[in-house]
Amino acid sequence: MNKKKIPLYKQKGFHLFLMNLPFLILVFILSYLPLRGWINAFYNYKPGIPLSQSTFTGLKYFTMMFSDRLAVKEIGRVMANTLGINIISYFFSPLAMIFAMFLTEIKSKWYKKFVQTATTLPHFISWVTVYAIAFALFSVNDGLINYLLLQFGWVEEPINFLVETKGLWLKMILWGVWKGTGWSAILYFAAISGIDQEMYEAAMIDGAGRFRMMLHITLPHLIPTFFVLLILSIGNFLNTGMEQYMLFSNPMTADKLEVLDLYVYNQGLIKVQYSYTTAVGMLKSIVGIVLLFGANQLSKMIRGYGIM
Fold this sequence. Notes:
Blueprint lengths: L13 H19 L27 H8 L1 H22 L4 H10 L4 H12 L6 H12 L5 H8 L16 H26 L3 H9 L4 H26 L7 H6 L5 H4 L2 H11 L3 H30 L5
Helix pairs in contact: 2-3, 2-14, 3-8, 4-8, 5-8, 8-10, 10-14, 13-14
């Protein structure tokens, strides 16, 4: 006897699909539809000229990155900046997890909410405002830090912190840590709230202190979340963004702060090399996909499971 066919709208998960449909549409419009612009990398594209009237160049702009001596030198410098900043930033990636663990242990609810709010708010501050804060603090003429150093007699002349290249990458990373740690910790707060409280009660009965419970209960439950975020960040290894580095750049620091995204912006919109920078962006995306799948496969080999 044939089973009665269940209508689509009554099938399990259909309502969840409808709830997610607007977001899927937005992802398609904002992330996948713009990929049609990749075709510009195979033409000598000029704004205002239809692509049908543009000269087909094939792989010219892809080979230029490896054959043109000046382009190779520039990309080498830019990649060194991008890789250096990203590699150093990975040493700070556990900070959000550690911050969430310690903040959860605070017993005062009002203080916990205050700290969480205060550390999350910087995420919503634009990099323009962050640079304005940095300028107000570290400017050579009117900066608060130089004023205090001079008043206390710790220096004889003001220090121009904003053009100092020593430890420049670390400074940029620390600004990012200040801006993003509170926001990144939200996922860890959610993971901590999902831990079975009976495990803590059993540990207390066995005489475990707060730090032992953090070490043997909280931390092991957060490690899977940490590795998922780490794998996703490896997929974005070459995506550092450009706003921060463009704003903090000046004639003294530009060579050290021109990361790949800023290089694409400078070459494409300022030097009007649209086709060349489209080719660079394509290769960057392809490398990101390879890194993501490679990190996922490595996670399966080491930990037994990945994110895909």
